[in-house]
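dumping this here so i dont lose it again. seq + smiles for zinc ion
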Amino acid sequence: MAITHTPKVKAMMASKCPKCRVGKMFVGSTYGFRRQRMNDICPYCGFRFEIEPGYFYAAMYVSYGLSVVQVVAAGLLTYELTKSESPWVYLAVLMGIILIFAPFNFRYSRLILLYYLTPKVKYNPKYEDHPYDEA
Ligand SMILES: [Zn+2]
């Protein structure tokens, strides 16, 4: 059987553990009826996602960056579509965008932080090399 290593971007989009790329980092889907929850440790390899106390405070900055991009894009798109000059139109759209993207940003700010902004978190391919060695 061929060994397949999950590409980094794909693993991140699927919100998999950054170390083994097998275990799921979150319980539930981004947009579900139940509030999404992050696992404390990877259910597959046991990696602790919050690598140090308060580590995910840094995710707030990532989340802020994502929000800015989304809000600016939504603002430009609203202008293109409506040509409106009413500030209330933009305010309503931006509030909606912020609410709609909140669960997405919660999840992906943490994923981006772990995958791309924390060099000491390393992918270890051994977990995918031996997918049936689960103890
Ligand atoms: Zn893992």
